Amino acid sequence: xxxxxxxxxxxxxxxxxxxxxxxxxxxxxxxxxxxxxxxxxxxxxxxxxxxxxxxxxxxxxxxxxxxxxxxxxxxxxxxxxxxxxxxxxxxxxxxxxxxxxxxxxxxxxxxxxxxxxxxxxxxxxxxxxxxxxxxxxxxxxxxxxxxxxxxxxxxxxxxxxxxxxxxxxxxxxxxxxxxxxxxxxxxxxxxxxxxxxxxxxxxxxxxxxxxxxxxxxxxxxxxxxxxxxxxxxxxxxxxxxxxxxxxxxxxxxxxxxxxxxxxxxxxxxxxxxxxxxxxxxxxxxxxxxxxxxxxxxxxxxxxxxxxxxxxxxxxxxxxxxxxxxxxxxxxxxxxxxxxxxxxxxxxxxxxxxxxxxxxxxxxxxxxxxxxxxxxxxxxxxxxxxxxxxxxxxxxxxxxxxxxxxxxxxxxxxxxxxxxxxxxxxxxxxxxx
Length: 432
Known about the structure:
Blueprint: H1 3-7, H2 23-45, H3 51-58, H4 62-65, H5 67-86, H6 92-111, H7 116-137, H8 141-144, H9 150-179, H10 181-202, H11 216-223, H12 225-245, H13 248-254, H14 263-282, H15 286-306, H16 310-324, H17 327-338, H18 343-371, H19 376-402, H20 412-421
């Protein structure tokens, strides 16, 4: 089975937007899906800024409290392909609404939880929602807007991922500091209800054209070098990020000497820098962007673990946000361009690894913090970022040796054309 065959496991386009349908309705639906992703990723990462308050309230350590990030990440990683395959021919609108409703109920349960075990059970349900929603939402833009707007609409949908990572967590942290951590979880549950209403009102019926078989996913991973490399890079970068970021609060406290009352403000600054990084990376070559980002973050994480002082900690946190803001959109672009005719399958593989890496990072960071010290978490993250940079460089060098047929084109339309005409894997741009 060639890489072109692997790409062909899904059609290049699903059912197109209906002729004569209102452009406003299409963009409203895109916005509702983006809000859903924002809500879910915010829910998944909300504990990052609330580890210490939750741990103190429920009598667990910072490392144990980190399981609130590990558990949903692990479950989401497994559920991304499972829900994608298991949804079969169900209407995608119904599936997305059920998943959002499940997330809202889970966050309400966490807000009312009498003990840490109940919180973890609720976080498991969040993981199911995140993995399934993100994987299915990735292929919907093509069904909601005219073809000429698909690229922009896809960017809007996936803009919910970095926006949640860099804005949702700081906002939740601030709300938790003002009203308590239970208030923050309850607020995300309320946001989920608002999102459910938006999906019901704005999404059209989205019947599935075909289902994905389980066997297609390992075949794509096995036979497409660019997809396989993208999954490996996803694991290294995201694990490195969350090994450190899950414990950003104790890091800023123990290394930089920053008082807890200022953490939420600094995380908002991190968020603003991350949004800027997302826009800077959005239109660029994903391989080059991820090479620069991973190498830069390796340096930033090593420095934030070793340089004392509030000024250094603040500057490095802003640089951290700027760099990581471009990761999600670059990884998604890498996978879509690697397998343009199997975008939903490739996306589910990336989403699975992205969320498993969140879990792995939170778990590794917890071991480092509890077993050694707070600075051990960003130092471990720096090593993983460096490994990612080396992997990207090695992959690029290998692609250049294989010649022009080994690189991904810099435009999705050319990628799709390549997948229809080439007998080998989708080209990956190597020379800019």
